[in-house]
Amino acid sequence: MTGTLVLAGTPIGDVADAPPRLASELTGADVIAAEDTRRLRWLTQALGVTPKGRVVSYFEGNEAARTPELVEELVGGARVLLVTDAGMPSVSDPGYRLVAAAVEKEIRVTAVPGPSAVLTALALSGLPVDRFCFEGFLPRKAGERRSRLQEAAEERRTLVYFEAPHRLDDTLAAMAEVFGSERRAAVCRELTKTYEEVRRGPLAELAVWAADGVRGEITVVVEGAPERGPEELDAAELVRRVRVREEAGEPRKEAIAAVAVAAGIPKRVVFDAVVAAKRADG
Questions:
Q1: Rounded distance, CA 92 to CA 118, Å?
Q2: Residue 197's beta-bridge partner residues?
Q3: Tally of CA atoms within 13 A in the half-sphere of 65 that contains its CB
Q4: What pLDDT was estimated at residue 229?
Q5: pLDDT digits 0-9 by tens, 51-90
Q6: How much is the pLDDT for 266?
Q7: Does an H or E element contain 8, and which?
Q8: Whose CA is closest to 246, among 237, 238, 256, 232?
């Protein structure tokens, strides 16, 4: 019999938010793979439990090397518990490699659901939550960050990002430039902690606020692109949208199709606009 891989959600701030099953899993696991063993020690002390299993580190720096070791434990019948510093493993945290490897070996994978900064920020943002996409952390380099934002410029679903506090002002300024200065957003800081704060407003306004410096864990929620009728988009705007997608690395054919779908118009209309612009440019 093979073992079981358990992904355990941990509190994102208030330890009282720990799911009830977490304590029993911490005491019953044969192996606990922790992103930070010091953080794990603090968590177990706060919950009043003592792990009986072996504790190993499992973080970005050793994830690739340690995954085969953990899979071997699982194949041998061990119950392996994976915990990260906060939130759910695999969501912008270590875990994906291990889950994929376990699935490939047909090992059972289950989860202890727990707090999520993504869902908490969405709920508090005041923005539409019926459809959303999680974009994780943006690239650190300005050019790469802008390209990634351009890819999402026409996305109608609400967008959720994680960001480091020292990069927040630059990120919000870039969002205001690419998405539009009046696009609504919410910056959620220190969720569930003592100094929790949710700042809502247009992107340009939030960028000015963040320029003074912001501390803590940050989640940014951004309103999706507004729906526009075909009558609002002239040929020049259609061409601009195609070029934005091309600059982000999307092939022209796919860019034309995506712009047509977003605008609710036939692909031929966008194609003709692009061809006409190319001829005009010589």
A1: 11
A2: 189
A3: 6
A4: 58
A5: 999 999 999 999 999 999 999 999 999 999 999 999 999 9
A6: 87
A7: strand 4-8
A8: 256
Tell me the C-alpha distance between 172 and 127, whole Å.
17
Tell me phi and psi for residue 81, to 5 degrees. Answer: -105, 125
Cα separation of 69 and 78, whole Å? 12
Mean of pLDDT values over 191-195: 95
Q: What is the largest CA-CA distance in the chain?
A: 73
d(CA 22, CA 25): 5
* Tokens at 151, concatenated: 């890819």
Short-list 217, 220, 109, CA closest to 159 = 220
Write the DSSP string, 91-140.
SSSTTHHHHHHHHHTT-EEEEE----HHHHHHHHH-S--SSEEEEEEPPS
Task: Compute how many other C-beta atoms are within 10 angstroms of the C-beta atom of residue 109.
Answer: 16
CA-derived radius of gyration, the chain: 23
What is each CA distance from 189 to 13, 50, 163, in whole angstroms? 11, 31, 10
Contact 270, 234 (CB under 8 A): no
Does residue 231 register a pLDDT over 60?
no
Q: Give pTM, 2 decimals.
A: 0.79
Task: Provide the 8-state DSSP code for 187.
Answer: E
Closest to 268 measured CA to CA, from 280, 257, 279 = 257
Residues 82, 109: contact at Cβ < 8 Å?
no
- Structure-token pair, residue 187: 């910056």
Strands of 31-34's sheet in order across: 54-57, 31-34, 79-83, 4-8, 108-112
The larger pLDDT score, comparing residue 158 to residue 231, is at 158
